[in-house]
Input
Amino acid sequence: QTQLVESGGGSVQAGGSLKLSCTASGYTYSIYCRAWFRQAPGKEREEVATLDGDGATTYGDSVKGRFTISKDNARNILYLQMNSLKPEDTGTYYCAASHKYCSGGDLDEYNYWGKGTLVTISL
Output
């Protein structure tokens, strides 16, 4: 079993930065795709960024050029550096992991989820 725990959320003003972390524990050897999703109040959960086992990354259109996904392989920590934050980035951010290829936003393809960390961006 694999456990994912997010941290780093908080409240910042628009234009600021935050760095989220997701620590994986348990059996992580066969995890191939790791991702960040977010869910704003009243909206569906959406894919923010993915990082696969070959190092390839993808980003949602709304965060391209502002967010960067990366991973510390030695410590098994996934990061999301978020810059130039906007109020519409507000939401709960979830870390997810899959044994399969990154799925283009299909939540059902992810085997493991964290409980989320709240990000609030104010004007």
In short: The radius of gyration is 13 Å. The longest strand covers residues 18-26. The CA atoms of residues 24 and 74 lie 11 Å apart.
